[in-house]
Specification:
This protein is mainly alpha-helical and 312 residues long. 48% of the residues lie in helices and 7% in strands. The protein has a 3-stranded antiparallel sheet. A two-stranded antiparallel ribbon has the order 4-5.
Length: 312
């Protein structure tokens, strides 16, 4: 009898949320839907409340070399929100993030199929800090060129416009990013997206985090949370085993992939600062798969190939 597959509740929840955001963007172009108007850069709720992407607002201010109080207020509201929830836009709202999330599943199936035939796709990992340099470049170009540089070429905006209006030749950029993900897993979100870099800085000390329940931790450490994190965060090694109360990495998008992967329900979304617990000892026991012998010799997390199929 085959084991029942775990339902990835958090994964499907953030996918549905991102799809819903894209749907109301499309509906907003019609006159009979007055409750939500706008784009990924700026929106108006219920015909009253204006919200603006903080990075877009800063680029516009730099490009025009002036301040626009209504725009800054609209951006300030979202800054306050993302100060609390961290980089949640990337995990729960971004249309491109939804596309790349679905694409990652297809790429993983392709890699699994190739492994059966003794073949492998090359993997390239870009430095995560690259996106911060690109963020600075976007602000610099906005000031010099007098136009919001990233907003003009943003694949996030391009994809949204393709759904709202009609696909154009600029959609080739989105296609190039999708193709890039085959060889650079999660490369755009991890290393190339200036907007992701901006929200990582804004939400560095966010209150909404993935909390760690050390009472449920046990002695067997499967590292599945680390293996399933799309942002490449070493959840088990740098947070759980370090005695932290929550994942304190600014790259965390609160997508819940690590929560879905955890068989012991050690991880839960909640409020926390991610500080180190005084009562938790810092230790690094040997790696063991669930229900495996405690005499495992390796202290490093396994690769995806080393896991039983049900854990991949």
């Amino acid at each position: 009898m085959r084991p029942r597959r775990r339902i990835r509740r958090w994964t499907w929840a953030h996918r549905v949320t991102a799809a819903f955001f894209l749907l109301i963007l499309v509906l907003g172009r019609f006159d009979w839907f007055p409750w939500f108007k706008g784009s990924t850069a700026a929106t108006r709720l219920f015909g009253i409340l204006w919200l603006a992407d903080p990075m877009a607002a800063l680029e516009v201010s730099l490009a025009t070399r002036s301040t626009h109080p209504p725009l800054l207020i609209a951006a300030g509201l979202l800054i306050i929100f993302y100060t609390l929830v961290g980089r949640a836009f990337c995990g729960w709202v971004c249309p491109l993030g939804l596309l790349l999330d679905l694409n990652a599943g297809l790429v993983e199936r392709l890699r699994h199929w190739l492994r059966r035939w003794g073949r492998r796709l090359p993997e390239v990992h870009l430095p995560a800090g690259t996106k911060y340099w690109l963020l600075g470049l976007a602000f610099g170009l906005s000031l010099v060129a007098r136009l919001p540089a990233f907003q003009v070429i943003s694949p996030i905006n391009i994809l949204a416009r393709a759904f709202i209006f009609a696909p154009g030749p600029e959609l080739l950029l989105v296609g190039a990013i999708v193709l890039l993900e085959v060889f650079v897993p999660h490369g755009f979100c991890r290393a190339l997206c200036p907007l992701g870099a901006f929200y990582s800085l804004v939400g560095r000390f966010g209150l909404v985090r993935v909390r760690i329940d050390h009472k449920r931790e046990g002695k067997a450490h499967c590292h599945l949370c680390t293996l399933h994190c799309p942002m490449g965060i070493r959840v088990m090694e740098d947070h759980t085993l370090a005695g932290r109360q929550a994942i304190a990495d600014p790259e965390c998008t609160r997508c819940g992939a690590c929560i879905d992967a955890c068989p012991r329900k050690v991880l839960q979304l909640g409020l926390g600062l991610g500080s180190t617990s005084k009562s938790s000892a810092v230790f690094r026991p040997p790696f063991c798969l669930p229900r495996a012998s405690p005499r495992c010799a390796s202290s490093s997390p396994p690769s995806a190939d080393a896991l039983p199929r049900r854990h991949r």
